[in-house]
Specification:
homotetramer, alpha+beta, 5-stranded antiparallel β-sheet, about 25% helix, about 20% strand
């Protein structure tokens, strides 16, 4: 399988390029009888779309989703749901001068090395615009999970040296996140993040950061013990997103300097009869790769946008030194639009493991 | 698929528990005609096995591998290779007093929540002893990759606050790593790491750390562009290992504070005609999820051993508060034995992507 | 995986219903650099489309394919190829009176039993119109195989009691097949088949038959030895087509009365140096599930169309006896349009095994 | 995936060769809490084993199964079940004279063409002895299905021209089948079949036949609509067995001469309130690829044993004409031992679709 599908039972297959006719996603395995319409997909597509605020790219795409199948009389039928999002504002001429140059930090060179050719119009298949398919599928996954009491909220935790103060990740609401264009629930930090992003843009530069994604309401027991640990599949999901160079759960890299006696989260009686919980959540909501009932908390490190309007040294396809300045419209910081993409992948992964769990353990 | 298989074309399936008869691994998809014998598997099994040094657990397992199939007259036949490693020193009585308690930091509770029962003898399927199967499969993968010029070396980068100085990750040799029991190529740091591990053991405690794994010789072009990015599959592979709470590539979480102009690795002409490379490797050897020809460099954060000989608060299966001290034999620091496990998973993932790449692109 | 994908490396995923907006197929894993355009898909879509002759259904669908991705400047890029075929002549009102009745021989009842609801407009996902996706994908597979010297020709072997005389299945040409609307290379039999089909239609009835599909040029060595035998995957492919109740290879059910001494095809030297062949082909081109280099010959038994304009006894959704006459436009005999569907599935299966074979055995 | 695994959720992976140390099967996805022990596997292994009666091969294998994992205190744990069956009576010297010759009807030549080498000891991986793994897995599947009220019974329907009279396939019992060594529930036909088999053996020849497998108690709703139709996956399962050249359901190839008005099984009210059934079962228990609640009835055509003690013409590895007489111990008719193999594959396929159905539709 050439890598354009994700999930075993809640299975997402995508196709499309940034400057072709559009993007398609097929979502297979959705249980029947769930109400679904295009209006369910649009909010997250709007959170992901370019041109949504002054700190994102100004490419203008309405990103309207058309459901082509799998829904009848407003309900899912159990058959595959295909969604089409056509491209509109393609401006492929913007890219003609990079046809024979490799943009630093992009996949131009590696695609060429792999396939012997590449669609040079804005990255083709490697464009982050590909995530439009994931976000559409993620919206379906979120609906399915909501019935199970699971909700997923992501936010920007860090931009450059500006770090948000988020005392309780599991208490952050979508409204708090959407209250500012940088999607940071700490208003003071948000202001400084926006200033920083505007500053780097004015300097023809870009800036990295981190995002934190939290899933609450996941019951204990989801995930498979060995290769398909929930943390493994979530990790794959996150690293499958463009620009992610690091992923961590709970205490994350902080465990390197911790002792066992301080790192173990002690089990204590829960609030429900017979229920069990932990008072701290350094484990990030999974033990042995299986959900513990605590919130799942993960963080992603996202690199600064590789495309820069300033000249950067590179080489041509035939190996000659040159320079390149990418004149396309790009985000000076990827994080604000990264949030819905990451939420979508968390949702797809959890929806898949929900179905996988009940396939084997539905009697329980 | 219930999560006990890994890989699409170089496909590994494992079974077994820490206190059952033994472990089985089936390795499917190995090309025919490669010389292979049990002697090829033993070195890495010896690096992984318990009781190998004073700073590891004293459980004594020879971990002898028996090849049951797929090899004829010293060569792989193209049919599946099954390997059996029987358990010897099981001492399951050590675990009888934890039958009705949940060990903090372990999968006892989550297995129970998932399946409604658990093999309480040393973790059963959740025991890290399960990695014996992976290391056997990894040895086969390493042999396959060696023919392609790919080699994989891992080492301990950090234990607690002790951080090794490794100027050039791609230059570290297996001999340097195996020169000391903590598997750290910086001899001075190794000495301090060993002292620290012995100290925490004397305090009935444990300590975390990080490991760095480097794959050299991977040609540009391996990996799939979207969901099965090489960084995504390697990330899944790493997070599928026990105790891993963080994974990062190249500059890793350091990208959060970086600007694009400093983070992009500039392409420059390579040493071979028409060859292309980058002078720095902040991208960690993959761009757009596809290998760039630079060394693949990744780091894993490994938590301190959860099993401690000191009393820790926990609850019983029916939710009553109690304490637990795990009297089994455990590593005070997981890192030294983690290195061959991580190398194995990197090797399996790369072997799979090598076959996947040539399936689609063998004409090139 | 909910069953809407086929193949491991040449991987086809479909979505769509007979009376929804249209059909989508995503073809993943196609090697890069192959010339491809919509004109390559149309001939087989035209052979499959309704309304093509007087002996098929009169539903009028142009079945124009739009390639949405995976092709750039006339060549495949190695990324997934999505194809969209919109529905035009849907006339869903034709089906309103069957909303609460189960058509005999159709999937109405079983879909309802499975999902608790169904798209009652012409069968929804269970409509044979779904094969439009397969035929589009099959056309891509045929192009890929043609480069390897493989060609696939199918034809109608039998309609009712009329059996074609085809002395050498491997010698039948597409031109011979397309010379008459019933797609039978024996002109005399074709005439009688057409008469029979017109007769059963005038009697408001339908008639079954068999089709024979032949793949020539497949080299020895394709197929996997155990579960994914080439005959197993081809068998699945054929049985995945609507209305197929039997599949056989070579001597087929005739082996039941054969003795080993007469059934074994003797190996003899081939025409090329060192080449090996068999003089007879009772084995149908595969031995041990792996292609032998002889033509692959298979036959499918296709039932008579279940939809009939005459009254048939059935029950309503709530189990009350009633009668039903399906007034939609239907083929009185499925065989002529079955041929391109079956060819497509053979092509997809062979393309997949071609890539699978070279993934493991590209060194050979 | 190189073809040694079967099933999506009830997933079986096998390894082993006829003259190596033994066979391994890993069964992943079995629900937890089901009682299971080696005694559950032995009856079907005994029905499959060589040397069981005078009309089978005299190779003597006890075929004792050892469960290596996945069962604790007599119950499945939800983790993978590995089963080991060691080879005993290997006599590989029997095969030394065929090292450089291709046995007609066997996979010797095609393995060589595929892999460039072969394990020439009795067919290696291509030996029908490989089905010992399937039968062990099938026994687990049967136990799982029995809880759902599903039972599977197979029998020999035809040997040469001797055809059993089986008025009601769904009424055949295991006791009737096991009442004679040829496994035919029609005692009179059984006697003639045995005579025929002894006759062909005395003539140093072999004979083909058909087997019929019936699954009763499958509720309406199992199976996926498009590629993974139940008839498609069962068809693949059957064709994955050695020597099968034809598969048919219900009316099978008889549909070719049928008219729709006679072929459609009319729906009628069932015996339970709201229940629906059909009075006839020409459809073989599946409609649109989904089970209808009627018995699933399928037939396989099994070729005569290819290995014959008489001289047969063939060629050497380097293409020179020669003759071969296979002196190993072989069944003069494969059918009696084919029955448990086919039952096993039906059971594995149904167990998989049972889990797949409830994964998506457990709410129903």
């Amino acid at each position: 399988m050439a890598g354009n599908s994700f999930g075993q039972l809640f299975r997402v297959t995508t196709a499309g390029e940034s400057h072709g006719p559009g993007y398609v996603v097929v979502i297979d395995g959705v249980p029947p009888g769930m109400s679904l319409g295009e209006a369910d997909l649009q909010p997250d597509l709007d959170r992901r779309r370019p041109g949504q605020s002054k700190i994102t790219t100004q490419r203008d795409e309405a990103d309207r989703a058309e459901i082509l199948s799998g829904v009848f009389e407003g309900k899912t039928t159990g058959t595959p749901i295909a969604v089409l999002v056509r491209n509109k504002d393609q401006r492929s001429k913007d890219y003609s001068d990079i046809k024979d140059k490799y943009r630093p930090g992009h996949a131009d060179y590696t695609f060429d090395a792999k396939y012997g050719l590449r669609d040079y119009r804005g990255g083709g298949r490697s464009s982050a615009r590909e995530t439009v398919s994931r976000v559409a599928a993620g919206a379906v996954a979120k609906k399915l999970l909501a019935v199970q009491g699971v909700s997923i909220v992501g936010y920007v935790k860090q931009v450059g040296a500006v770090i948000a103060d988020v005392p309780d990740p599991a208490a952050v609401t979508l409204d708090q996140v959407e209250a500012n264009p940088v999607r940071c629930p700490d208003p003071a930090a948000a202001t400084r993040m926006i200033e920083l992003i505007e500053q780097v843009r004015s300097q023809q530069d870009s800036i990295g950061g981190t995002a934190e994604i939290v899933a609450t309401g996941v019951p204990a027991g989801w995930g498979e013990p060995v290769f398909d640990k929930l943390k493994a599949d979530l990790g794959k999901a996150m690293f499958s997103l463009p620009a992610v160079l690091g992923v961590e759960y709970g205490a994350g890299f902080g465990v390197a300097t911790a002792r066992g006696s301080e790192n173990n989260d002690a089990f204590v009686p829960g609030t429900t009869p017979g229920g069990i919980t932990t008072t701290t959540n350094r484990h990030g909501g999974m033990l042995g790769g299986i959900s513990s009932g605590l919130p799942i908390v993960l963080r992603c490190a996202v690199k600064p946008t590789s495309s820069l309007p300033q000249d950067q040294p590179t080489v041509t396809r035939d190996g000659q030194p040159t320079t390149i300045a990418t004149k396309g419209r790009h985000d000076p910081c990827l994080l604000p639009r990264f949030v819905p993409m990451a939420e979508a992948m968390v949702a797809i992964t959890l929806a898949d493991h929900y179905l996988r769990h009940r396939a084997q353990n539905a009697d329980r």
